[in-house]
Amino acid sequence: MAVTSSGEPTPVSSSFPHRRTPLSRTPGPKGANDLPDGDLRRFEGRGVRFLYAFSPLLPHWIASLSMPPASCSPGYSTLFSPVSAGRDSRNENCFSLSSLGARKGIHHLPGGQGDDLVAAAGIHILLIEDNPDDVFLLQELLYTVHGSETATIDLSTADTLAEGMGKLAERPFDLLLLDLTLPDSRGMATFETTHERFPHVPVILLTGLKDEALGIRAVQQGAQDYLVKGSFDHHLLRRSIFYAIERHRLLRNLHRQMEMLEALTTASLRFVPKDLLHLLRKEAIDEVALGDHIHLEMAVMFSDIRNFTTLSETLTVQENFDLINNFLKRLSPIIRQNGGFVIKFLGDGIMAVFPENPDAALVAGIEKLRAVRLYNEHRRKVNYRPIDIGIGVHFGKMMLGVIGEEERIGGDILSDAVNLGARLESLTKRYGVPFIVSGNVIHHLQAPEHFHARRLGRVQVKGKQEVVSIYEIFDGALPEEIERKETTREIFESGIDAYFSGRMRQARARFQEVVTIDPTDSASRYYLSLIGNGAAPLSKPARRRAARDTF
Fold first, then answer.
1. Confidence of residue 261 (pLDDT cuts 50, 70, 90)
2. Top-level CATH class of 291-476?
3. What pTM, to 2 d.p., does this model score?
4. How far apart are CA 462 and CA 460, in angstroms?
């Protein structure tokens, strides 16, 4: 059924075709569209073009779309049977074009006018629906608001999920109307597939009465809304569309704001570690106040590049910064991976704590030494000097908290134990070993059998009466070096006992024996140099205290 510009009837197929082109509307002459039932529509598809008058009779017209075409005289054309006006006795099922043209809202369309509903600045909607009748009804509802034109919607259609996914990939859409029952996909999988691939497109689901529970589930998983077919009108549809688009826009803005906030929080945690917040029982950095602190027993670790001052003099300023940053970049993650966290960077060094147990600190120290060995292989390849590091670990009571002033705060630890940890690291240069820990660390190990350690002696902290036993952890050495130190460990420790008891001749013999077996043993050579210089190991009171030391 068609009305052509010449007035000739145009045959129409007995079933309404599935239209692929957008619905077009063109306003009639002045005053026509002011009437509640005055409106004009043009449909196209598979060569079919026809006009009809929009009125409250529209539901009956839709029901009559399958009527067979009639043979009409020139000047008449077939329209929908429920319309009674303009009927001619000679053409019982046909209507006079002149009489139709006189009806309100029926207007002649010049060819090509009103081909596309929306220009560039419209709401772009994709409808994925395989039922032609549902497509037609949705198109009607989308473009109808009290018989007035709202030229803001550009509708594209697809009748399979695959076709719809292709269109979503080709161009941006403001909204997706999605049927849950398609030829190539059914149920929640239909929504999940589209939402996973195109999460930026808001989705309104079209469900049947039996699928309402699926609609609710989909909304819980990210859909903006669901509509039960046959249970909504154009007002509800349009409101749902605009609310969905606006709600999705607000959610995207909220998501962006949350990402910005998370980025700021992450940036702030670079200055106050989140582990410190947890220990202080704070949820966020803005809850931290100056003076917040906690007393804990934990391991503190100091590590830095040996002889950095001498090395830095051979480098440019940029090379110095590159060296330090590469050093810190390789070692800091090892601390975190083993349950510790960095309190502060000390130029070419790191101060870190391990709240759980000292075993984790030893594992981290061993992995650091291995990482530096690999890093040195890279430095040699590019003709850079290798670096050496020293590591010192102590276990004791410490006060961990926040210091600074109102405009700048930072985490720190305060305790004599911290000073001792730094002192142990400095001793690595003297003894020529990379990793020294206190006897208190060895005493608190949960699994001491997992580590290779030997006693290095005892030291008296400057300004303190305390004498501290010190140990070398040599698991980070090469396998052959570990084997040599394990072979000479008892001989070396007997030399230590002789030295601190004042039996210098016996001590010299023991250390010399170690050097004979292992010429690279720097600690034995250090003690031999002390004995050769006649240096007293400890004062007599200190030796008495050291004799009572159980570490």
1. low
2. alpha beta
3. 0.52
4. 6
